[in-house]
Amino acid sequence: MKAEIITIGDEILNGQIVDTNSAWIAQQLAPLHIRVLQITSIADTAEAISQALSEAETRADIVLVTGGLGPTKDDVTKTTVARYFDTTLVRDPKVLAHVESLFQRTGYKDMPEINKQQADVLANARVLFNDVGTAPGMSVERGGKYFAFLPGVPFEMKFLITNRVLPILRSREQETRVYNAYLLTVGLGESHLARQIADIEEAMPAHIKLAYLPKLGLVRLRFTAVGANLSQLTEETEQIVEQVKMRLAAYVVAQEDISFEETIVRLFAHAGQTLSTAESCTGGYISSLITGVSGASAVFQGAAVTYSNEAKVNLLHVAPHTLETEGAVSEQTVQEMAEGAKRIFHTDYAIATSGIAGPTGGTDTKPVGMVCIAVAGRFETLVKTYYFKNDRTINIERSAVAGLTMLYNLFKKEYMLDVE
Amino acid sequence: MKAEIITIGDEILNGQIVDTNSAWIAQQLAPLHIRVLQITSIADTAEAISQALSEAETRADIVLVTGGLGPTKDDVTKTTVARYFDTTLVRDPKVLAHVESLFQRTGYKDMPEINKQQADVLANARVLFNDVGTAPGMSVERGGKYFAFLPGVPFEMKFLITNRVLPILRSREQETRVYNAYLLTVGLGESHLARQIADIEEAMPAHIKLAYLPKLGLVRLRFTAVGANLSQLTEETEQIVEQVKMRLAAYVVAQEDISFEETIVRLFAHAGQTLSTAESCTGGYISSLITGVSGASAVFQGAAVTYSNEAKVNLLHVAPHTLETEGAVSEQTVQEMAEGAKRIFHTDYAIATSGIAGPTGGTDTKPVGMVCIAVAGRFETLVKTYYFKNDRTINIERSAVAGLTMLYNLFKKEYMLDVE
């Protein structure tokens, strides 16, 4: 099946925001074996909306539209879409009650008409109830084609795709079965991974496809098998996954579709180990990744974000002498920070970072992108210096992935000692 | 003038990469008052390419195409584009020499035909010489419309837009001018804002449009004016912005297109004030937002992420008695956390959070989504309890925005005292 995505709204067209919704949607459709033919971003005018819909309808089986819904702007979108499908708008009582209950939480009385209109839906649509916002989604089927209209706010869109749209699309696809398997790798680039498993990939049957999904220091491998018999697909795919996993043993960290930080939280929880961080250039980003995982509290004790030298001394007991002679961005400083965090949070492991995230603050000997990272474990402390060459945001993200990778490797090494 | 952007390549359609090129291009066009009408991502097939070109040509004055050029894939794009413009491909000797010199640097001899083809350009095109890569850009003019074809690799595309395309576009005659102005508001929803300024919006001339761009607790207002005379547009728009700003004075935090955290860093830097955080449920997220802003080090001293009770006592000196009688998620605890952070980091202000982010850990009296937030200022400490009702990620994000909003309001109040 072929899909198209249409995003409505000026904020993408004038470059104010980057359209991350479409890539996310495409990733969700891939496991259902639905291919995205075209992604179109348009202004919220009646002319642009109806033209984009009619062009997409001629090419695709599935048309997913995001944006253009919301109390101050859904007027144009909804009336244009109603006209496009030769239908009218009706007020949905269940949606209205939901919008009213959200409105009452704000403490205001007398909900204005503009909010009531949020409950207006196409008369011929299935309402995609939006638990996490006021703008309902809608889906329409016409001539065997499926259309969905969703708000553009990412978390509302994601909620509706996951809980309302994908179940419908899954039920449409009945003869064809799809099986997906995943391997998460760290520490080796896409092309190097591909080279290491070239022979396995070459020998794969045509109905099993391997996709490399890279993301700053991590590469996720997705195996997608398509056929008639699910148990056979599962067995065939898992055999290949097993081969790849053995070949890439040094780089594979998870065999599920979960994040690296979730992998670490699960591993640590399983082994009864605890973790803390001492962060300078990453500014709490590693801590926020870890604590974003449900269940992190069993593992994570806390973080000391020590942006100033004074805080490094007072909180983490870094020696003033070290800061004077080696500087804040140095291997000696991060070693003392990691060991300090281990002590003050009473944890088995600690990650410490100090670097120059940029865009300013670099010198000849310590350029922008230079980051020192230490991981203190139960038996030893690893220290390493990296030279990232990106902008501030990416340098921070790369530092986080590098710190988590060092942590993962030290944990695995020390855990093996226990097992032996 | 109206532009369209077409991006060619499967990696965007299958969600493997996010299209950041288009937003960057749109940002470069805005100062030239060129409005992007549509952004289209398509596969690298002859059919998709010629269809997208012909649709764009009917609507826009400028068509910028990225991607689909490169040694393994430029075949389809170039031959399709040549056919579209009724022309042929010719080998450009200057480009060929450049490609050969880059090839020789790799140490290989005998450049294969596939690389020589990189020097093939449309016979009727102006070559946009690519100093930083092997794929040349090309531009074609037809019927007063301007087309440019550029490689998709971001730094090559950026080089060519900046050094080859923008100079040409600048020299073309422009009739339509566009002026944008922004207001960032916090603390009031989209529909409530709209109601408060309904009369101003109603009275706005037709050529000035107002868009509401909401994002978890924040709403950005964008005013876009289109017309012939830029200085007149600027004056008209700024008058309206001033009216709206006065009406919404309690909610407006910035008059530029910047983030809330950047607003706060700038304000604090300007006033010479310092900040720290003490975070439980937000797990360092507030700290990572603040430190994501370049220049944060002038303002931000550090954060204590105290996930465990032990860390709350040891690092922030929260009284064990408070934790026993009131619990970790309580107004008394966050008040002591905020005041503790102020003391240990020696800052003028501190934000503290403690709550139940979910999905587990809730009780009848302290449900998932309950978050206590304190902001300690120079003269007083504000404390408030919120009940968010979303998933873990969103509860954390909402807590961060609520904490920053409390901080902003307390800062403003105390700053006023200084000024008086």
UniProtKB/TrEMBL annotation, chains A, B:
<dbReference type="InterPro" id="IPR041424">
    <property type="entry name" value="CinA_KH"/>
</dbReference>
<dbReference type="InterPro" id="IPR036653">
    <property type="entry name" value="CinA-like_C"/>
</dbReference>
<comment type="similarity">
    <text>Belongs to the CinA family.</text>
</comment>
<dbReference type="Pfam" id="PF02464">
    <property type="entry name" value="CinA"/>
</dbReference>
<dbReference type="InterPro" id="IPR036425">
    <property type="entry name" value="MoaB/Mog-like_dom_sf"/>
</dbReference>
<protein>
    <recommendedName>
        <fullName>CinA-like protein</fullName>
    </recommendedName>
</protein>
<dbReference type="Pfam" id="PF18146">
    <property type="entry name" value="CinA_KH"/>
</dbReference>
<dbReference type="InterPro" id="IPR008136">
    <property type="entry name" value="CinA_C"/>
</dbReference>
<dbReference type="InterPro" id="IPR008135">
    <property type="entry name" value="Competence-induced_CinA"/>
</dbReference>
<dbReference type="InterPro" id="IPR050101">
    <property type="entry name" value="CinA"/>
</dbReference>
<feature type="domain" description="MoaB/Mog">
    <location>
        <begin position="4"/>
        <end position="172"/>
    </location>
</feature>
<dbReference type="InterPro" id="IPR001453">
    <property type="entry name" value="MoaB/Mog_dom"/>
</dbReference>
<dbReference type="Pfam" id="PF00994">
    <property type="entry name" value="MoCF_biosynth"/>
</dbReference>
